[in-house]
């Protein structure tokens, strides 16, 4: 799915369950027709409007995509590796991964390794940007290392303590620099 996909369907309200079954099949097996590429989404939105028993359903999928445009540079691993990533894009990406990690750990679930690896790699990159809280970087790196060790051990309690420490360090820095 190289670009965004939008599907709008008008149907009788009784057809709605079948529509959602088609969508579920597309997500599991890869879609075709109006759901082509729906299994490769980064973000999706479903809305529906019932008017006199006729339902208009809109489904929008935003693709994971590649580093195709300047706005998407924050998603590009090449940009991360070369250090050409803008600081605000880095922070945005870190916010997304950390929010997921923090929430899952505090709900007693193991976060996806991909999110943890992305967050830790971004954290390493972030502390290389001068002028954005340099005096906090050493302590931040230390709590990130503690989190990494806790994640690798699979100890959710230690991970919880570590993400709380990361949140604390982030708050200290952001109080001065945001």
UniProtKB/TrEMBL annotation:
InterPro entries: XXXCH_dom_fam
Domain of life of the native organism: Bacteria
NCBIfam families, per the entry: XXXCH_domain
Name listed for the protein in its UniProt record: GAK system XXXCH domain-containing protein
Source organism per UniProt: Pseudodesulfovibrio aespoeensis (strain ATCC 700646 / DSM 10631 / Aspo-2)
């Amino acid at each position: 799915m190289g670009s965004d996909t939008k599907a709008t369907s008008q149907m009788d309200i009784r057809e709605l369950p079948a529509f959602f079954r088609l969508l579920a099949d597309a997500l599991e097996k890869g879609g075709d027709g109006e759901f082509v590429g729906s299994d490769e989404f980064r973000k999706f939105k479903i809305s529906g409007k019932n008017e006199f028993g006729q339902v208009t359903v809109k489904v929008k999928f935003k693709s994971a995509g590649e580093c195709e445009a300047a706005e998407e540079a924050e998603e590009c691993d090449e940009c991360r590796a070369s250090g050409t990533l803008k600081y605000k894009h880095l922070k945005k990406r870190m916010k997304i991964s950390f929010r997921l990690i923090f929430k899952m750990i505090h709900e007693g679930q193991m976060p996806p390794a991909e999110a943890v690896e992305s967050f830790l790699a971004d954290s390493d990159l972030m502390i290389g940007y001068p002028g954005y809280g340099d005096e906090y970087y050493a302590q931040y790196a230390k709590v990130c290392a503690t989190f990494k060790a806790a994640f690798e051990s699979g100890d959710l309690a230690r991970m919880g303590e570590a993400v709380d420490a990361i949140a604390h360090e982030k708050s200290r820095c952001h109080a001065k620099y945001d």
